[in-house]
Design goal:
By secondary structure, the protein is mostly helical. It has a domain at 248-428. The chain has 21 helices and two strands. The protein has a two-stranded antiparallel ribbon.
């Protein structure tokens, strides 16, 4: 009886289309951003007044380049948007999220079955774009992170086309140039573009192909990184941000900065917004632990990310008056195993916590290797390491704490992609009639519905 109920949930013809979840998710984000009530944060305190003080745009960009930032393309567009009615930003942001969603679908999942696409869209919603879009103000945050990440993946669409045997014409390059330059104006994504460009260049050399687009994005990425490194405003901003946000940052040993990056990465994906990680690590448990054909060691390794991650999550959620001492031992400045700004790893407790975190993260990666072996493993590792690298770069910024979770936008997206790959692998081993398989889809969709509803209610 229960099996028939679950099965009937997926018998409607309309729900079998792969495009339905994509359309529904796009509509959700249009409604979501159209419901934003007004500007907040940095745009209210700084950008909006500057956009309307009569300063010519070119003069404003010169000032920013010399005194604060190399993101002159991003900030130029931001000033233009702030000079328009707020509805323009709302519509553009809805378009950006739709572009991101459909680009990811085309690049990674266009050949997948409908249930996998439903899970993919659910995981994108679980990324919690409310937090990723609003921490420094809606307009400022989306222009600096959400818009560039959408442009980044749109820039990767031609790579998929080329690998499928298609050729780019001159018109395609003319359209792509401003999109690529916009994505590259965000330093984090310039590094990711460079890595991707180099990897595909090497692949084309090995296969004795000459793909102009790979040279194109690699050269532009190098030029963008040089532009950022030589920008006087970036140097000036670094000094001021050290003084404002992390006065002892320059005193930290070099090796401890990546440690801070590892801890904040763990804090974001397991403590603050854990659902994508737990869904992904839960699928790993189903694929390995419950597979009696696997060796016992692999099966035990599959439990480590989920079980240990859950323990860390629970410790941070318990009321402090119940297990205050346990909380005090494991949580520093609100982060599991973290550092207070200005603190250093100078105790056995902190080192043990760092090792505990590293074991969870490394076991997650090792389990991916166990599951995918040669099939898609290079693509999956390129995806997940792109997200990890984007966050680790922040280790060398004094605003790693102040910038908060918005800097992890790419990390969450890549984790959602990885989770979808895992579910796709799981779906290969289960038939559509399998009650557990269908139930897992419904649970993930339910979590996405709850998360989306909570995000919407916060507006």
């Amino acid at each position: 009886m229960k099996k028939d109920i679950v099965k009937k949930a997926f018998e409607f013809e309309w729900i079998k289309s792969k495009y339905i979840p994509l359309i529904i998710t796009s509509i959700f984000y249009f409604i979501f951003y159209l419901s934003v009530k007004g500007m907040t944060g940095d745009e209210v305190d700084w950008f909006y007044p500057k956009a309307h003080d009569g300063t010519p745009l070119i003069e404003w960009l010169k000032f920013r380049y010399n005194n604060w930032s190399s993101r002159i393309i991003i900030e130029g567009i931001m000033i233009l948007i702030l000079r328009m009615p707020f509805i323009v930003w709302k519509l553009l942001t809805g378009i950006c999220l739709s572009v991101l969603l459909w680009s990811l679908y085309y690049i990674f999942f266009s050949k997948e079955k409908t249930p996998v696409i439903w899970v993919f869209c659910a995981l994108i919603i679980l990324c919690n774009f409310y937090s990723l879009s609003s921490s420094a103000g809606w307009v400022a945050t989306t222009l600096n992170y959400v818009y560039p990440v959408s442009a980044l993946f749109l820039s990767f669409v031609p790579i998929k086309m080329i690998e499928n045997g298609k050729k780019l014409n001159k018109m395609a390059y003319l359209i792509l140039i401003p999109i690529i330059l916009f994505a590259l104006n965000q330093e984090l994504f310039a590094v990711i573009m460079l890595i991707v460009g180099i990897i595909y260049l090497i692949q084309s050399f090995v296969q004795k192909r000459k793909e102009i687009y790979y040279y194109f994005i690699t050269i532009l990425a190098i030029a963008s990184i040089i532009f950022a490194l030589t920008c006087p405003g970036n140097s000036s901003r670094f000094v001021r941000e050290v003084n404002t946000w992390y006065p002892s940052f320059n005193e930290l040993p070099f090796i401890q900065k990546p440690f801070i990056g590892i801890v904040t990465l763990f804090d974001y994906i397991i403590v603050r917004e854990p659902w994508i990680f737990f869904i992904s690590s839960g699928i790993i448990v189903f694929l390995l632990y419950f597979n009696e054909r696997e060796k016992l060691l692999k099966r035990l390794c599959s439990l480590i990310p989920f079980v240990c991650g859950f323990i860390a999550f629970i410790i941070t959620r318990f009321p402090r008056n119940i297990i205050a001492e346990l909380h005090k031992k494991f949580v520093v400045d609100g982060r599991f195993g973290g550092l207070i700004q200005g603190d250093t790893y100078n105790s056995i407790k902190q080192w043990l916590l760092l090792i505990f975190i590293c074991i969870i993260l490394l076991m997650f990666l090792l389990n991916l290797l166990f599951i995918f072996k040669r099939k898609n493993i290079y693509l999956i590792f390129l995806v997940i390491f792109s997200g990890i690298i984007s966050q680790m770069i922040m280790s060398f910024s004094p605003t790693i704490y102040a910038s908060s979770i918005r800097t992890a936008t790419l990390l969450f997206i890549t984790l959602a992609i990885t989770g979808t790959f895992l579910f796709s692998k799981y779906s290969e081993e289960k038939k559509i009639e399998n009650t557990l398989y269908l139930s897992s889809i419904l649970v993930i969709l339910f979590l996405a519905f709850i998360s989306g509803s909570i995000q919407y209610m916060k507006l």
